[in-house]
Amino acid sequence: MNTVTIRTPQNVLIEYEAATLMERVIAQIIDTALMGMLAFFLFMAGITVFTSSIQTVLIVLVALLFTFATLLCELYGDGMSIGKWLLKIQVKRLDGQELKLNDVLSRWAFSFLEIYLTFGTLAVFMIQVSQKKQRMGDLVATTTVIKRRASYLVTLENVKNRKSAEDYTPTYPGVERLKEEQMLILKSTLDRYEKYKNEGHQEALLLLTKHVCQVLNIPVPKKNKAAFLKQILKDYVILTR
């Protein structure tokens, strides 16, 4: 299993499982097929139904759709085209920030060379040889493609003595208000604190505890903040699984 480590703006390292080459290829095939079918139907409708002037407009629209559809999907779809959404994979910046227009433009521009002009061979080669499974467009944009759920969630399934949400009474009701990305940061911070109990990680634990308490509108515990966050994690896993 290939993994990619992403450093968030909060300077927390989160490990994701990299999307496989097969997943990326299938997602690309789905996107191309969907765009091709839609373009074909629009083109045929233009020929059979509309006048020549409208046909010209439709042909231009079809060309624009085929050219920019993936770019727009990834820009406004949180790094996911339709194919990526179906395969549960996602374009992610390595610094953990949201995708920007220039990131998506870089990937889109290089796709003409890597995917269409070379029939995907250049993209496949780059993904295979690069450490973080990046094609050329990813290297320029400092992005990669990851599986949407972080790999640590598999470990969370093994929480000891977990119960179903129906018969479980959470210690801290309302943990569902926390986002999955926040739980990723929480789990990563706990892991690093357990491994390196230095002053920096103690401070990170304190800041995270204060943030969680603020979201849940509860007082900050005076002692054993690690145990508090572990209980938050346990409540979240059981109530949202």
How can the largest sheet be summarized?
Answer: 2 strands, antiparallel
User: What do the pLDDT scores average to?
Assistant: 83
Low-pLDDT parts are 151-162
Record field, number of beta strands = 4
Helix and strand pattern = EEHHHEHHHEHHHH
How does the overall form come out from the CA principal axes?
elongated
Strand content: 5-15%
User: What is the end-to-end distance?
Assistant: 23 Å
Main β-sheet, spatial strand arrangement: 1-2
Percent helix, as a range, is 55-70%
Radius of gyration: 23 Å
The helix/strand class is mainly alpha
What are the key terms here?
single chain; 241 residues; mainly alpha; two-stranded antiparallel ribbon; two-stranded antiparallel sheet; 10 helices; 61% helix; elongated
Task: Outline the structure in words.
It is a single chain. With 241 residues, this protein is mostly helical. It has 2 domains: 3-147, no CATH class; 158-240, no CATH class. 61% of the residues lie in helices and 8% in strands. It has helices spanning 21-49, 52-76, 82-87, 101-117, 121-129, 136-141, 152-156, 180-195, 199-216, 225-240, and strands at residues 3-7, 13-17, 89-93, 143-147. The strands form 2 sheets. The protein has a two-stranded antiparallel ribbon with strand order 1-2. Strands 3-4 form a two-stranded antiparallel sheet. β1 and β2 (13-17) form a beta hairpin. The chain is elongated, with a radius of gyration of 23 Å. It starts with a strand and ends with a helix. Mean pLDDT is 83; it is low at 151-162.
